[in-house]
Design goal:
It comes from Artemia franciscana. This is RNA polymerase II-associated protein 1. This protein is mostly helical. The protein has 57 helices and four strands. The N terminus is likely disordered.
Length: 1246
């Protein structure tokens, strides 16, 4: 039989533990057996001795918990330490006899002491009460209940129930006597005694006592009103007596330490209060479940789900953001983990667009402002593995954007998909902000930096150092390691400085390379202990981190190659056989794909070229495998990863072809000492065999694409796009080689064009592809960018548009990658054989193609600065290049398309923009005189001499106009960097990362930009007046001619800018210098442009927002000051000043500004109807309702500030409105005095 003191083991059941406890207590020797000697005379002394003996007995039941892996928390085991037995007393206390002495005087009775004892007494626990019962200590009896005597006019007395004297015997006797006396008195006697008592008291005291128990009427009313306005939270206000039947779980006597049930403390376990009705106008607080999903207020959720708690709104399931923040601060690690995991799920769903339009605030901004980043960073300093893991996952969900990363992986094998985005904040985008931060950043507090830039705040919090320590000293679960690397990737994407900081953080990349990029293949003899513990296992996330850092700059790529064995590692992963590794086949292929993409990055800089020779056997083997074994129409599901791997391999081969194509050129430059970089060790002779294999794969896959078009998967189309792009690169550089046989090359090009390009151009699949492209277009989309949900201090690419849809151009069915590669190949083949150019005409005969091109010119542009829009922009570029070669019939359509390309091309495409400028935008063939004459006629202007002269001058000066715009918009250093990026020139290529995350290179208002730039330059001079160089006058003269020609011929395109925006930008020319507007050509262009604007929209909205201006009033004040200073009453300048003044019921603030504060301007406004571009009759249809302005008009005429001879237009306008005011407002009582005065002074005009 087991001993009662036996230690409890793991295998013991609950029933066994209870039985052991029962036997222990039954066999345990009671302390009451201790005998007290008879010499003890006092019961009090005996009680003291007994209490001393009890203090030697202790029973300790301590529960220890061992942490398991955070994925198996519910299966944790518990161990119990055995009950510690009480120690037997070694001897029996024998107190000395005490001689009792009577005090000389009786003990004084102290009521205050009794009251103090009673009021200071605390509620005792059940344990303390039981111990007193064991010791024989009897509690004082409960207070005596005394029947209260109700006397009319007085409130019931509360002295008896609240007094502290009823704990003593004397108090009970006094109370009993008072009660007996009151019960013996009659009602009349009681009232008589009451009157006597009240007469002896101060009346003020009596009034105070009467009013103290009841609030005044005013207070009651205010309280009721406040109760109506205030928000009441559901609480258990009405506490009712409950029984065990009301509880969801019946207590059992067999439960440990639950032999006494305190029902009042189990009130919270009863039924939930009913939900409060929701006000649809005010909304309600958002509550989430543990999966990060919103819980509807009326959703019935079982309480067993753990979503009900004792916070605010206990009747509602779910946790609010505030409550989750409270749990993160908890001292319980489980509560921390629960809160962080829930917030991570919320963040992921928010970035997927699931919560778009639901909340009043931007959720991510609210979380950052609430201090979530700081809380997560603090939890990273914990020593608990589960807390650290959850902190990493939540921090990754906060900083990183997984939809962006997935979309970037999807397009990495597309044309120029290897280029990476940068995600800076305004500090890095704006030079002035960056300079200011550099100077004063050290003085800013952490909170201030967090509000400006989250990534910079991470540096201030030493996040890199902490991540290094965690990765080095903790063996975390795979998901936690992935999260840590994702955080580093997001930091690296921020800027070049952040990537450099990661590289220079001592020991950080060392840990990455040692633990997650081991330079060996995963053969069975090196398989990891557990696949959920990834130390020693190569991770594709780690390779991607290296790729992102290397893409930031060639100097970082060089430092990585020289310091770490990166090439050894990725070469091992490329050559790995999926059957030889313990990793799943899909993970092995993903690892190989990421290794190929990373090597492409290094190879684009011309680095590691010599190491490629070791890969030639495996590359040839894989290419032969794809040529002979992989088809696009067979086992498409099983071959999905084969297609993706094939696309990565072919993109890598294309990069090798590109490097080999520059081999001869770099050798020549090096011999001439024009470059100092080493020549990549890949010659064309090595690459040539690969080219033949690639061409054969292209022929096979394009035939299958055309034959089985509807059955081809998205991964299959990606593979086709990669092979077509590789073939295009091969033919581009083939003709540049000295060993090239042009006759053979031309024959091969014509054959390839006929079998691939022409076949596709004449097939029905062409129409299907472009019909689909109309739906998938980003440029023509009206979708709202996903960046709307991002706070300014933590931007993203916004791959998920507002509403939760992925950007259409990168969805699975998008044809943009195949079409772009196909058109690029067509262009490269047309450069070799002019016979192929004729076949391109078939492309322009397709109605689906024309439909797509016309849709692009409808000017949606909501996503034109989207990072992934660059791939559609690339497609537009190849369409334009083919149109230049083939000369389509509708030149105007393609010229408009070229303008769409100009404002949609991203940063990095400057050299391509320069080509389109030269070959199409400023090409006279696309701006013929016949079209101009038609425009004049359609606008009703006729062939006016001024307009014809300006148009003719502009057409004859297109080369000079192009030079002006290229100088303003395409600086030389940007052209060099862009050329190096597009052509992959290793000697000058500095980075593969594009700034600003997809920002366009040319602003949409580019025709006006030289004027704005010149105005800004002039404003920096201050009051200094210098003579303007003739060269700058000529530049602005050509700019104004182009603006006029642009508005005349591209009316539909120019309408993407509002009339007030165009008016404002043209008016800036008057602020660009003191004498520009005096030039004859500029003056004529200013007049003609204003005529086009006001003919289109006579009434301008001067209160509308103008991009680039805080308000139009600010610009107008500057124009007034300039007009007063230097205009000398110039009539064209005056026409721009007059435009706001002549519009009734509009621009009242601007009118008062002139008529009240600038009377001298009124004298200078000498513009006549012949100069003003449109008839004054447009503005004489509505009278001016502002009587104050009418007074100003009358005063100006009476004082001769304006006269009919000097100010004919303004005078006529003011007089007409005075007359109309008198006619319309004559019967209005308020204006009768004014009307009478006007009739008296201007009666001869009526």
């Amino acid at each position: 039989m087991d001993s009662p003191g036996k230690e409890i083991m793991d295998e013991d059941t609950d029933e066994a533990v209870l039985e052991m406890q029962r036997r222990f207590f039954s066999e345990r020797k009671d302390t009451s057996d201790v005998k007290i000697k008879k010499s003890v005379k006092s019961q009090a002394e005996a009680a003291q001795i007994l209490e001393a003996l009890e203090s030697t007995a202790h029973t300790v039941d301590k529960v220890l918990r061992t942490e398991k892996d955070f994925e198996t928390l519910e299966n944790d085991d518990f161990w119990l330490i055995g009950t510690i037995k009480e120690r037997p007393a070694p001897f029996v206390l024998e107190p000395k006899a005490v001689i009792e002495k009577q005090p000389a005087f009786p003990e004084a009775f102290s009521r205050d002491k009794l009251i103090e004892q009673k009021s200071g007494k605390k509620k005792e626990s059940l344990f303390a009460l039981n111990m007193k019962k064991k010791r024989g200590i009897v509690e004082d009896s409960e207070p005596m209940e005394v029947e209260e005597v109700k006397i009319e006019g007085l409130l019931p007395s509360t002295f008896i129930s609240s007094s502290g004297i009823f704990t003593s015997k004397e108090a009970e006797e006094i109370s009993q006597k008072n009660a007996e006396k009151l019960s013996a008195m009659t009602q009349a006697e009681i009232l008589e005694e009451q009157e006597k008592l009240l007469s002896q008291l101060d009346p003020k005291v009596v009034d105070f006592l009467k009013k103290g128990r009841q609030p005044s009427a005013g207070k009651k009313r205010n309280t009721e009103e406040e109760d109506k306005k205030s928000v009441k939270f559901s609480k258990f206000d009405d506490i009712k007596e409950i029984s065990e039947e009301d509880l969801p779980i019946r207590p059992s006597e067999s439960w440990v330490n639950m032999d006494k049930v305190e029902l009042d403390k189990l009130q919270w376990m009863t039924q939930l209060p009913p939900p409060r009705p929701l006000d649809p106008n005010t909304g309600h607080s958002a509550r989430f479940n543990f999966k990060g999903e919103l819980v509807a207020p009326d959703m019935e959720v079982p309480v067993t789900k753990g979503l009900h708690h004792h916070g605010e709104e206990p009747e509602r399931a779910g946790y609010s953001i505030e409550e989750l923040f409270t749990l993160i601060r908890s001292t319980s690690w489980r509560q921390k983990v629960l809160a962080m995991d829930t917030l991570a799920a919320i963040l992921r769903k928010n970035k997927e667009g699931i919560f778009d339009g639901i909340f009043d605030q931007t959720l991510l901004k609210e979380l950052l402002d609430g201090g979530l980043l700081v809380l997560l960073r603090i939890n990273l300093d914990e020593q608990n593995d589960s807390v650290i893991s959850s902190s990493l996952i939540a921090l990754s969900a906060l900083l990183s954007n997984q939809p962006d990363e997935l979309c970037l992986d999807r397009v990495v094998t597309w044309q120029r998909g290897i280029e990476q985005p940068s995600l800076p904040t305004s500090i890095d985008i704006e030079e002035t902000s960056k300079k200011h931060f550099t100077e004063e950043g050290e003085e800013l507090k952490d909170v201030e930096i967090l509000q400006i830039d989250v990534v910079r705040a991470c540096f201030r919090m030493n996040l890199l150092e902490r991540l290094r320590y965690i990765l080095n000293n903790f063996e975390l679960h795979a998901l936690s390691v992935f999260a840590a690397i994702d955080i580093l990737i997001r930091i690296a994407r921020h800027s070049l400085e952040s990537s450099t900081a990661i590289f220079e953080c001592e020991g950080l990349l060392d840990v990455i390379f040692v633990d997650f990029l081991p330079p060996q293949r995963l053969l069975p003899d090196v398989k990891p202990k557990l696949l959920d513990k990834v130390k020693g296992v190569p991770l594709r996330q780690a390779i991607r981190l290296i790729r992102v850092i290397a893409a930031k700059g060639v100097h970082l790529a060089k430092r990585i190659v020289h310091k770490y064995p990166i090439i050894d590692s990725i070469a091992a992963y490329i050559m790995i056989e999926p059957s030889e590794t313990v990793l799943p086949i899909q993970d092995t292929l993903r690892l190989s794909i990421e290794a190929l993409n990373t090597w492409r990055t290094f190879l684009s800089y011309g680095l590691t070229a010599s190491s490629c020779s070791g890969l030639f056997p495996i590359i040839m083997k894989n290419l032969m495998f794809y040529l002979s074994r992989v088809s696009l129409n067979l086992k498409t599901v099983e071959n999905m990863f084969n297609y993706v791997h094939g696309a990565a391999l072919l993109s890598f081969v294309e990069t090798m072809i590109l490097v080999a194509g520059n081999y001869e050129r770099l050798n020549k430059l090096q011999k001439q000492h024009l470059v100092s970089v080493p020549v990549p060790d890949i010659s064309w002779e090595i690459i040539h065999p690969l080219g033949d294999l690639v061409i054969n794969i292209a022929l096979k896959w394009t035939h299958e694409l055309d034959t089985y078009f509807s059955d081809i998967t998205d991964a299959g189309r990606t593979a086709v796009a990669s092979v077509l792009s590789a073939v295009a690169t091969y033919f581009k550089y083939l003709t540049k080689q000295s060993s090239c046989n042009m006759v053979q090359v031309i024959t091969s090009a014509e054959n390839l064009f006929e079998r691939i390009i022409r076949r596709f151009f004449t097939s029905k699949n062409l129409d299907k592809q472009f019909d689909l492209l109309c739906v998938k277009s980003v440029i023509a989309s009206s979708a709202v960018p996903g960046s709307k949900r991002d706070p300014p201090n933590l931007p993203s690419l916004g791959s998920v548009t507002w509403g939760g849809n992925v950007s259409p151009i990168i969805t699975e069915s998008s044809p943009v990658s195949v079409l772009s590669s196909l058109l690029r190949l067509a262009f490269e083949l047309c450069q070799i054989s002019r016979i192929s150019v004729v076949s391109v005409q078939d492309l322009w005969k397709s109605q689906s193609v024309l439909k797509y091109l016309k849709k692009l010119t409808d000017f949606g542009f909501s996503l034109s600065d989207h990072w992934f829009a660059k791939f559609e922009v690339d497609l537009i570029y190849w369409i334009l290049k083919l149109s230049i070669e083939s000369q389509p019939s509708d030149l105007s359509l393609f010229h408009t398309l070229s303008l769409v390309y100009i404002i949609s091309a991203p940063v990095g495409d400057e050299c391509l923009i320069q080509e389109i400028f030269e070959e199409m935008v400023f090409n006279r063939r696309f701006l013929c005189e016949e079209d101009l004459i038609e425009e004049f006629s359609s606008m009703g202007l006729g062939l006016k001499s001024t307009g014809t002269s300006l148009a003719t001058k502009a057409l004859n000066s297109l080369r000079r106009i192009r030079g002006v715009y290229e100088g303003f918009l395409l600086p030389e250093e940007q052209l060099i960097a862009s050329t190096a990026l597009i052509q992959r020139l290793p000697e000058v290529l500095a980075t593969l990362t594009l700034p600003h995350g997809g920002a366009t290179a040319i602003p949409f208002d580019w025709p006006f930009r030289p004027i704005v730039a010149r105005m800004n330059k002039e404003s920096k001079k201050g009051d200094t007046r210098e003579e303007t160089p003739q060269e700058e006058i000529e530049d602005l003269k050509h700019v104004m001619m182009w603006i006029y020609l642009f508005q005349l011929t591209k009316k539909s395109f120019i309408n993407i800018m509002s009339p007030i925006s165009r008016f404002s930008r043209v008016a800036c020319l008057f602020l660009a210098g003191s004498d520009f507007f005096l030039d004859e050509t500029i003056s004529a262009a200013l007049q003609a442009v204003l005529q086009l604007i006001l003919t289109e929209s006579p009434y301008l909205r001067f209160d509308a927002r103008v991009p680039g201006l805080s308000s139009f009033k600010e610009l107008y004040v500057n124009l007034l000051n300039q007009f007063e200073d230097v205009s000398y009453g110039d009539p064209v300048f005056g026409a721009y000043i007059l435009t706001p003044l002549l519009q009734p019921k509009r621009a009242a603030e601007l009118k008062r500004l002139v008529w009240s504060e600038h009377p001298f301007v009124l004298r200078l406004l000498t513009t006549s109807q012949e100069i003003f571009p449109i008839s004054l009759e447009y503005y004489l249809k509505e009278f001016e309702p502002d009587h104050n302005l009418i007074r100003r008009y009358a005063a100006a005429i009476q004082s001769s500030t304006i006269t009919k001879e000097r100010n004919p237009l303004l005078y006529k306008y003011a007089l007409w409105h005075i007359q109309e005011f008198v006619n319309v407002q004559a019967d209005v009582e308020e204006f009768k005095p004014l009307v009478k005065s006007l009739k008296h002074n201007f009666g001869h005009f009526f």
